Amino acid sequence: MVKRSRMPDFERMARDAGYRVTGIEQLRSNRWLLTLSDGNGCTILVLAQARPLIGSADVQDLWELVRLRNPAIGVLLALDGGFSPAAHHTCAELRDRRLHLCTSLPPAAISATEGPSARGVLASSR
Predict the structure, then answer these.
(1) Where does 11-122 sit in CATH, by number?
(2) Hey, which residues does 45 pair with through a beta bridge?
(3) Tens of pLDDT, residues 28-71
(4) DSSP character at residue 111
(5) Domain limits of the chain?
(6) Which residues lie across from 21 on neighbouring strands?
């Protein structure tokens, strides 16, 4: 993993995937919460982490944010890393179809048109 010395270009990343950024909060030096909007006006929360391995506690953090803010979709985005087996297991146990584990931001067209049924496309490897 390359150590990040500055915040990733989330504006470009979101624009390239078809979203509009409505908010960016830096929660830690390697963790950001993005609030995105797709073309249909749906809200997408993205918890982005710049770490080599994302674990179950991170999935639970995303789940809490999704429960509190009630977006259409919640994405746990692994920047320069991947997800532990425990992270996949926790996501499956929570049974919330809005949660998605991704290594790149999914295109807005997929999340907007297919919603929860796009889970296989959005998930990194379930």
Answers:
(1) 3.40.1350
(2) 35, 74
(3) 999 999 999 998 989 999 999 999 999 999 999 999 999 999 99
(4) H
(5) 11-122
(6) 36
